[in-house]
Specification:
heterodimer, A: 415 residues, alpha/beta, D-Maltodextrin-Binding Protein, domain 2, 9-stranded mixed sheet, 9 strands, globular
Chain lengths: 415, 298
């Protein structure tokens, strides 16, 4: 066992998380006030004492005293609206249209990863109105009162346009704090002209381990949850949020075997490495591959790029948009969220990003027919029903985070 | 007299303030994080400023991982090997260049110095990123080597090769070595070399027994200047390789600092690295002090 892995009993992590919860101002008060925290018995708690959301135990996030939704019927502020999002994660055309529609200025500031964003936001040194976040961090930012609850009267497009399963998702029942932005799956991208397809292997994930003469041409995503999660799925472990040391360490060991077998690379450049031929087999996000046509070298057809994911039981997820608690223009921020949930603007964003917005009216076939996605990459389009049977990476307990990070550190040390 | 006595020492004040503000205080902050705790909600580091309240659990587990065969041992050994080879490569390239500039370039000296400084106009990161385009399977390097017949097919320079990482380190840091070396070689009195030749020594022997010993401080200064950032470098490996097989200690530090509940581990690794480098620096300081006390007697 990895010596830095402190053995932690279930009881200990429940106690430590409960202790953390007690430290959160207002948390006890909200419990006394009867604010629902989902089922607490038998459900592991995350940082801040909020139960960890799972499909089979949805979580209604607490609303704390002093951090209530804004009142209805207010007019949007004058701006400028400060938006904090991933790099190149919103179509500038959509931002421009919002500016024209509301006659305000929008400033978009980007971050490279969620931890960096969180570090900046928690220092209080930066003030934004809107923040593009991930479900993984939701419990923390709610418990830390970093984001504010939403007033749905400003968000009519949520119920009108968004898939029902994400209009009130299990990680935020009633969409108290979030609206969904885009959905994605994680699968395998490969170069059809260089290697055999994943489906030619008895276990398609074995393409990483068993493709001959592929040293240096194989990559996994530089994200510990995604990469270790894929190694778990290969071993037919369906709980990609497991905190079993044996399973997580075995997944790490399997990845380390990839280093010895094929000198695996770890990066986030799947969208350009597969088109350029620098990589032949990579773990990839569906949206990155949907836009691979834009990165193909001259004379190389896009249909040399393949994208595979399981019919059932693959990895699926969605990003979320929130309004920060310290937002100076909270009403305008709500209008911005609603604007992005409009079908026209969601489609404009899709054409820029390649990631599918969870809009009821978007038909996968029409996206191909209209040329948004090449026919050969139809598997990159995510459908609502897939959220019922695919796996989602969700928050872990603190002990679980330590376990996963240590397995990742061991793999990345290349020993 | 008292005023005159303070006049020259006051010149050191800006440097001293700079050192305190941007080295001592940040370094103490790293110590306070390494021996501190973690925020229970966001898992960000919570520094403990009072040394009497420090926690040593993280440092103990990091030190355990430094035993042979353990995770951090692997990356430390690899880092020392890469930096050692890259340093040797830098000296092999940098010394002759600095020597030529100092001793033989006459009218072209100014032009060559400007050319040496040009790489500093472009950021280190940009220079590394530029190599990606050059080293791609269909990049300029592969096409040129295939065209002139040195390669039968494109080589996988970016396929996680240790040689590519070491080459990139040499490329990135060699200009920083040449300048201090040039400054030292340029200051060597020509009559000392002439004396060696006049006394019957060959050119090579004169170089070996006069020039090389006199340039020792330049070699040490240049080596320290480039070795220290190389030890903490993580970006070169990320850009040029990306393979865990070439991971350096800087990559592990970055991994723990980038996220998760173990930022204290990242800070503890920084401390361990600083202690190791401090030992190397001590030799440099000792050597410098000793050299400054010895008059040149060639």
């Amino acid at each position: 066992m990895h010596p830095r892995e402190r053995r932690s009993t279930r009881r200990r992590f429940l106690l430590s998380a409960a202790g953390a919860f007690a430290a959160v101002p207002g948390a006890k008060a909200s419990l006394r006030a009867g604010m629902p925290l989902a089922r607490r018995a038998g459900v592991p708690l995350g940082p801040g004492g909020i139960p960890l959301a799972r499909r089979d135990h949805p979580v209604t996030l607490p609303i704390y005293h002093g951090n209530e939704p804004i009142a209805s019927g207010r007019s949007p502020e004058k701006g400028p609206l400060e938006v904090f999002t991933w790099s190149a994660y919103i179509n500038p055309k959509v931002v421009k249209e919002f500016e024209q529609h509301y006659n305000v200025k929008v400033t978009v500031t980007s971050f490279e990863n969620e931890e960096e964003a969180l570090s900046k936001l928690t220092t209080g040194a930066v003030r934004f109105d809107v923040w593009f976040a991930t479900v993984e961090y939701l419990g923390k930012v709610v418990a830390g009162k970093l984001i504010q609850p939403l007033n749905h009267r400003y968000l009519p497009n949520l119920q009108a346009n968004v898939w029902p399963s994400l209009a009130s998702p299990y990680y935020d029942v009633g969409s108290r704090y979030t609206v969904p932005y885009v959905v994605y799956t994680t699968g395998i991208a490969w170069r059809r002209d260089k290697v055999k397809a994943p489906t030619t292997f008895a276990n398609p994930y074995d393409i990483f381990w068993q493709t001959p003469r592929s040293s240096g041409k194989v990559a996994v995503i530089d994200d510990l949850r995604e990469a270790l999660g894929m190694a778990l799925l290969r071993r037919r472990v369906v709980d990609v949020n497991t905190e079993s040391p044996a399973l997580v360490n075995r997944a790490g060991a399997d990845l380390s075997q990839l280093t010895r077998l094929v000198n695996v690379k770890v990066n986030q450049t799947d969208y350009q490495d597969i088109p350029s031929g620098a990589t032949w087999i990579t773990q990839a996000y569906s949206g990155d591959m949907a836009t691979s046509a834009a990165y193909m070298p001259k004379g190389v057809p896009v249909d040399v790029v393949g994208f595979w994911r399981p019919q059932q039981g693959g990895m699926i997820g969605n990003d979320i948009i929130t309004v920060l608690r310290t937002a100076k223009r909270p009403v305008l921020a709500h209008h911005f969220l609603n604007f992005l949930l409009d079908r026209k603007h969601a489609l404009e964003n899709f054409s820029f990003l390649g990631y599918v917005p969870p809009q009821k009216s978007l038909d996968p076939q029409s996206l191909i027919a209209q040329g948004y996605v090449p026919k050969s990459l139809a598997s990159t389009i995510v459908r609502e029903e897939e959220f019922r049977h695919d796996r989602t990476l969700l928050p872990l307990t603190i002990a679980g985070e330590v376990l996963w990070q240590n397995a990742w550190s061991k793999f990345k040390a290349g020993g | 007299m008292a005023r005159r006595g303070l006049f020259w020492p006051l010149f050191a004040l800006p440097g001293a303030v700079w050192l305190v503000l941007f080295f001592l205080i940040p370094f103490y902050a790293v110590l306070s994080v390494a021996f501190g705790t973690v925020d229970p909600i966001f898992q960000g580091p919570v520094p403990v400023w009072n040394p009497f309240d420090w926690h040593f659990t993280t440092m103990r587990s990091v030190l355990e991982q430094l035993r042979p065969g353990q995770v951090f041992w692997t990356v430390f050994v690899r880092t020392f090997a890469y930096v050692g080879i890259a340093l040797a490569g830098c000296l092999a390239i940098g010394y002759p260049v600095a020597y030529y500039l100092a001793r033989h370039a006459r009218r072209t000296k100014a032009l060559l110095l400007v050319l040496l400084i040009i790489p500093f106009w472009v950021s280190y990161l940009m220079r590394m990123l530029a190599w990606i385009g050059l080293l791609l399977p269909d990049g300029l390097v592969n096409r040129s080597l295939v065209d002139i017949g040195l390669l039968s097919h494109p080589h996988g320079w970016l396929d996680g090769q240790p040689s590519s990482v070491i080459f990139a380190l040499v490329y990135g840091y060699v200009p920083y070595l040449i300048l201090p070396l040039f400054a030292t070689l340029d200051r060597i009195e020509p009559h000392l070399i002439e004396a060696g030749l006049d006394l019957g020594a060959s050119r090579f022997s004169t170089f070996l027994h006069v020039t090389l010993p006199l340039s020792k401080q330049g070699i040490l200064a240049g080596s320290v200047l480039i070795a220290l950032p190389m030890f903490g470098d993580y970006y070169t490996n990320d850009v040029i390789s990306g393979s865990p097989g070439t991971s350096m200690i800087g990559n592990q530090i970055n991994l723990f600092f980038q996220g998760g509940p173990q930022r204290t581990t990242g800070a503890a690794l920084v401390i361990v690295l600083a202690v190791l480098l401090g030992a190397l620096m001590s030799y440099y300081l000792y050597s410098t002090v000793r050299a400054s006390r010895q008059p040149v007697t060639a």
